[in-house]
Amino acid sequence: MLMVVLFHVGGMRHDTFFYCLSRCGNVGVDVFLYLSGIGLWFSWGKIIGKKHAAPTATGTRPAPRNASGRRGKRLLQAIAGSPYATFLRRRYVRVYPAWLIVAAAYYLPRCLDGRASAADTALSIAVNWGFWQHDELTFWFIPAIMALYTVAPAYIELIRRHAECRWMPVATMVLCVLVQYWAPLHSVVGHLEIFFSRIPIFLIGINTGLLVEQRRHIGRAGWWMLIGMLAVCTLACVNFEDGLRGRFPLFLERMVYIPLTVSMALLMARALAHAPAWAGSVLAFIGGISLEIYLIHAQFVLLPLQPLRLGYWPTALAVVAISAAPAWLLHKGISLLTRKIA
């Protein structure tokens, strides 16, 4: 999330190294998706573990004559209590209430002053329809992550049963190429490149969750490889942003983000294992409200600060500091309201 803030602040000279790094800050989205994939593996495992451990009734008994209505009711209850429904409920309860509040605060004023119709406003608040229709990037991450949450259990079960399907992220990388260059597909979903190019890292995160569960370890040679990978990918991304912006399809840089994300996340995990306790606590706090910071910082904090021209780093620090308080309040308030649902 801190990387995304640095990306949104922008404003430094194009010929500076730190400007190029800040332009690569949207890799923070990839890091979030990668870590989410790891977490979803364990979340799904806990849900199906509880369901499998639940006692089941034995034997049968004759159904009463008026059982048709009861069967329908039991079917609905079974669907609502299924592992998939439980998984989606927990994921959506974490994302959707915060999204509804912030989206209403952003889109309703635009409707009231005539900039958007009531129908468009309702669709924007419900599912961010503008993103799916014409690539409106305001809050684009929210519909994207909810779409990925929807298919995550199917992929987890697929690789549980068929180890060969762990190569699926490679296939989705080819899909990104087709979205960009195959005219029939590009004409339909080409505007959603920013979404399709994030599918591989999300699936790789789920694959990594399996490796973490199996307690796989990285040897010394592996760590050196990750350091080299991080350096090479950083060099490539900085080179993309230093003078090449607009001269290459963006999905190409996002493909470089994949090894950049994996190497950076694993090396940061290694570094945090030796970091002071207070550093871990601060990062855990920011991580816990990262969704709310994402929703609040760009439109409600950064835009009012930009006319002040504080400079890059003061603006970035101010955005994080100011966004943290309302983000925490929003997170706490929603947690209290949705505790029984989740």
Automatic annotation (TrEMBL):
The chain crosses the membrane at residues 16-42, 92-108, 137-155, 167-183, 195-212, 224-244, 256-273, 282-305, 311-330. Residues 1-330 form the Acyltransferase domain. GO terms for biological process: polysaccharide biosynthetic process. Keywords: Acyltransferase, Membrane, Transferase, Transmembrane, Transmembrane helix. GO terms for molecular function: acyltransferase activity, transferring groups other than amino-acyl groups. GO terms for cellular component: membrane. This is Acyltransferase. The lineage of its organism: Bacteria, Pseudomonadati, Bacteroidota, Bacteroidia, Bacteroidales.
